Amino acid sequence: MEELPHRLLHAIRQLQKLSHTSHTMHGLKRSEIMMLMAIKKGNQGKEKHITVTDLSTALKITSPSVTQVINVLENTGYVDRVNDQQDRRIMRIVLTDKGNDITAQIYQKVEEKYSNLVDFLGEEKSNSLIELLDEVYSFFSKEANKKE
Length: 148
Known about the structure:
The chain is 70% helix and 8% strand. The protein is built from six helices and three strands. The protein is mainly alpha-helical. It has a single domain (28-147), classed as Winged helix-like DNA-binding domain superfamily/Winged helix DNA-binding domain (Arc Repressor Mutant, subunit A, Orthogonal Bundle).
């Protein structure tokens, strides 16, 4: 492998390793945190709350996987399942007060981390990084679509 692509691959792998270890907060696994955040985002500004199918689509994971995580979050008091008012067959997922509290704490911690990164890099490098990451995302999205 050429030197530059190898260095780029190494840098991306390093970030991936960090992202998998640094998302454990408040005794919650990364998957549980991601689920809580998706529920919070999915329920914002809506009269109807998010469903397992909505979460499955948003997180690009199977409905049984969503259900497993929801079961854990429900057993620990972070979410509740509620029947849809119009269609009793549909179960909607809502954050409890405890769930809202923990997601607020997580959002605050994440915001603090990225504020620290901006302070570390400075405004110019931060803007450059944003532009580069947007381009990287665009490139890999196009690559993924070519294979389908």
